[in-house]
Write a structure and sequence with these properties.
Radius of gyration: 15 Å
Distance between the termini: 35 Å
Structural class: alpha+beta
Helix content: 10-25%
Length: 149
């Protein structure tokens, strides 16, 4: 299993969009085609691959020009690969990428069903329950440096 960056617009990027659509959009009656994909060219796309097959993805969106913080979003692991540590490895890879860029923290909006997963990885709940795409979420953060914003 190898985690690496996915180039925007590449064949691997199209596989990422297909995975995100299948796992995150279609179950909610939505389509990835309705998302503003063209704005994702400035975001960091990470994928986990088994041989050449994409089995997990996530996107890191810079929150400011200096990359003080990143927002982790669109985390998806192929159903048949869940429970094997792929999500954990992908998030660790994202954290290493964030630190290499000098970022101070990562924030995310976690579905209620995934709170325990993120808490085990050191993320803290920092907000009340809210609804996003029709699902209850909580804002979570993990800081890498002492100087919280």
């Amino acid at each position: 299993m190898v985690c690496r960056e996915i180039t925007f617009g590449s064949k691997e990027f199209q596989a990422e969009l297909n995975l995100r659509d299948d796992l995150l959009r279609k179950p909610l009656g939505l389509s990835i085609q309705d998302d503003p994909i063209h704005l994702e060219d400035k975001e960091i796309h990470l994928g986990c691959f088994e041989d050449d097959a994409l089995v997990g993805v996530l996107v890191l969106k810079p929150l400011d020009e200096q990359c003080y913080g990143l927002k982790m979003r669109q985390v998806a692991i192929r159903t048949e690969f869940q429970g094997y540590g792929i999500g954990r490895n992908l998030i660790k890879h994202a954290e290493e990428k964030a630190k290499s860029l000098g970022c101070h923290y990562i924030e995310l909006h976690a579905r209620e069903s995934t709170l325990g997963f993120y808490e085990k990885l050191g993320y803290d709940i920092v907000g009340d329950v809210f609804t996003e795409v029709g699902i209850f979420h909580r804002k979570m953060e993990k800081h890498f440096r002492e100087d919280k914003q």
